[in-house]
Amino acid sequence: MRGDKVWTVEEDEVVRSKYPDYAAIRKALPHRTYFACRARARTLRIVKERPPYTGKELSIVRRLYPKADREDILSSLPGRTWSQINDLANRNGIRRAPKPFKITGIKVLDQIRTRCRELNYSMPDLDKMARTKTYFAKAKWLIRNKINHRAIGRAVDALHGDIEADWK
Predict the structure, then answer these.
(1) Where are the domains of the chain?
(2) Is the pLDDT of residue 146 over 90?
(3) Contact at 8 Å (CB) between 122 and 128?
(4) Are 25 and 19 in contact (CB under 8 A)?
(5) pLDDT for 92-130, tens place per residue?
(6) How far apart are CA 116 and CA 101, in angstroms?
(7) Are 38 and 29 a contacting pair, CB within 8 Å?
(8) Spatial distance between the Cα atoms of 138 and 121, rounded to a whole number of angstroms
(9) pLDDT per residue over 41-86, tens digit each?
(10) What is the 3-state secondary structure (H, E, C) of the chain?
(11) For residue 139, pLDDT beyond 80
């Protein structure tokens, strides 16, 4: 109807005999695109159908996916691969919780980075708010081996915090 060539019985046989090697199918049928060959394989029902997701599986993914370990999730959903679980989560807008920032050993930097994680800010976001160029995003305290106190003060101010001296 759209002007596309109609698939012939001979072409269908080529798809059946050479599936799943799409490169070989394309060589035998140079006038067909890769996506047309894939669609025809699905139409002929020679593609392995994946079982549909159940409501129970979606419920498990909603509960465990954000925080649980990979092994726990896989053991709760037998017969599913990690890529299938990722696919289900992505299609339903479920995301993994972000990993905490690595500890620097510098108390004030660790507190700033922890506060950013609580507020769901990235280090480039903090640099933009504190007007520090790339100090936090590129961990410049490691490169220069010295802390930029002005950047720390601006970051604390941007995160609505207070600096407190602890005298001994």
Answers:
(1) 9-43, 55-91, 107-158
(2) no
(3) no
(4) yes
(5) 999 998 888 888 888 999 999 999 999 989 999 999 999
(6) 9
(7) no
(8) 15
(9) 999 999 888 789 999 999 999 999 999 999 999 999 998 999 999 9
(10) CCCCCCCCHHHHHHHHHHCCCHHHHHHHCCCCCHHHHHHHHHHCCCCCCCCCCCHHHHHHHHHHCCCCCHHHHHHHCCCCCHHHHHHHHHHCCCCCCCCCCCCCCCHHHHHHHHHHHHCCCCHHHHHHHHCCCCCCCCCHHHHHCCCCHHHHHHHHHHCCCCCCCCCC
(11) yes
Contact 85, 122 (CB under 8 A): no
Distance (Å, whole) CA 101 – CA 93: 23
How far apart CA 7 and CA 86 sit, in angstroms, is 35
Task: Decide: 72 and 63 in contact? Cβ < 8 Å.
Answer: no
pLDDT for res 1: 60
Q: Tokens at residue 89, please?
A: 């989560």
Q: Under DSSP, is residue 90 helix (H, G, I), strand (E, B) or coil? A: helix
